[in-house]
Write a structure and sequence with these properties.
The chain has 144 residues and is an alpha/beta fold. The chain has four helices and five strands, in the order ααβββαβαβ. The protein has two domains: 30 residues; 91 residues, Nucleotidyltransferase, domain 5.
Length: 144
């Protein structure tokens, strides 16, 4: 007699649980109403460009490699350019434009040392954009 009573109690509990779930669903469905919202699209992350950088330049502080120069040093295509030398900066810009046209690439990845002044980074970015490259990706050298 105790076993049949227990089975009836389990069956009733299952039905009560189902009824409670249906009641909660109906209650929450009435509580959810459309509200005004702002719809926007997120920009592309550019992950495809990051996988294949194309053109790469390295920007280091002027005291690297035992040399002491005023301003930072820019390395591109196995050549060194001092940012303090206007003629060298123009030569870099012309070479960059030629290489970008050859590679059909409008992206420059600029590898920077943490010690490079922010003004030098901005100077290179402005020069690159002025010469027609559409995107500059920055990468910082990580300390180990």
């Amino acid at each position: 007699m105790n076993a049949s009573w227990f089975r009836h109690l389990v069956q009733i509990a299952a039905w009560l649980t189902l009824a409670l779930l249906v009641a909660m669903f109906l209650f929450l469905q009435n509580a959810m109403a459309p509200v005004p919202a702002l719809a926007f699209e997120l920009p592309d992350s550019g992950a495809a460009d990051a996988a294949a950088p194309g053109l790469v330049a390295l920007l280091l502080p002027g005291d690297v490699g035992g040399t002491q120069t005023e301003g930072s040093l820019l390395f591109f295509d196995d050549d060194r350019y001092a940012l303090s030398d206007a003629a060298g900066v123009n030569e870099f810009a012309e070479r960059l434009v030629r290489r970008a046209a050859e590679a059909k690439c409008g992206v420059l990845t600029l590898l920077c040392d943490r010690r490079v002044p922010a003004g030098d980074v901005m100077q290179v970015m402005a020069l690159v954009r002025k010469r027609g490259l559409v995107r500059v990706q920055l990468a910082e050298k990580q300390d180990r």
